[in-house]
What we know:
Order of helices and strands of chain A: HHHEEHHHH
Strand order of the largest sheet of chain A: 1-2
Largest sheet of chain A: 2 strands, antiparallel
Strand content of chain A: 5-15%
CATH topology of the domain at 12-93 and 132-138 in chain A: Arc Repressor Mutant, subunit A
Oligomer: homodimer
Helix content of chain A: 40-55%
Number of helices of chain A: 7
Structural class of chain A: mainly alpha
CATH class of the domain at 12-93 and 132-138 in chain A: Mainly Alpha
Amino acid sequence: MSKCGSSLKLNRSADYALRAMIQLARIPEGSRVMLPELARETAVPESFLSKILQSLCRAGLVVSCRGQSGGFEILPAGRTATISTVISAADGPIRLNACLVEGKPCSRRSHCPAHPVWESAQHALLNALDSQTIEALATQPHASQ
Amino acid sequence: MSKCGSSLKLNRSADYALRAMIQLARIPEGSRVMLPELARETAVPESFLSKILQSLCRAGLVVSCRGQSGGFEILPAGRTATISTVISAADGPIRLNACLVEGKPCSRRSHCPAHPVWESAQHALLNALDSQTIEALATQPHASQ
């Protein structure tokens, strides 16, 4: 019943946000890149990338500067962000199941035997996605585009 | 940009499939339950549950029998199935990102530094979701509805 034929799959916006963040982290500190160039380098459609960058700016991971030497620049918080932080900024917090929404306890929680399994699955997933920063990913030796 | 405000979230069909499987595993072996009763017990709309049960039947986890003592019955393969098996049956295989589709290697794989992180995240998630069978979940002491 899934449109894409897969379960628990990341939305494209979050995947593209990750690409953009890794690419921005490869640029020397203090440098900026214009939207068309970043779109080309990440192979993301420019209009889609523009919306994604707005989300990343709102989350304080990226800054957009106008003017002749303008463009997009990754902020220190963006360099130290993990994959899960970037996903959350682009597409909302990671919650494998509706029963894991903070501050809104699931009504079935007290008698649902699957709840602890979802909690441990969420924990394992976040652990893996938080294992490296964007900066570490961007500077890996094999990570040349 | 996510419609539900969360990332990597399970579709409702897979969540409902899990509920149905756990409920079916609570019924004594050889017994059956009719659709309206199962819909009431799981709090899933009857027409939606009917479609989900079709998927579970196709996957060989459940059988549907006609006649006076007819209804839905969990099969041995359903009792020993794990959460990930039920999710796959209802909603397609678990793939956290498009780059993890088997037999269709991602064109960015060779230079994408995020790929190994996605592989380890997928591995950690499946490990957690495969940690218990439906039967084990259904017979937990606190799992009374």
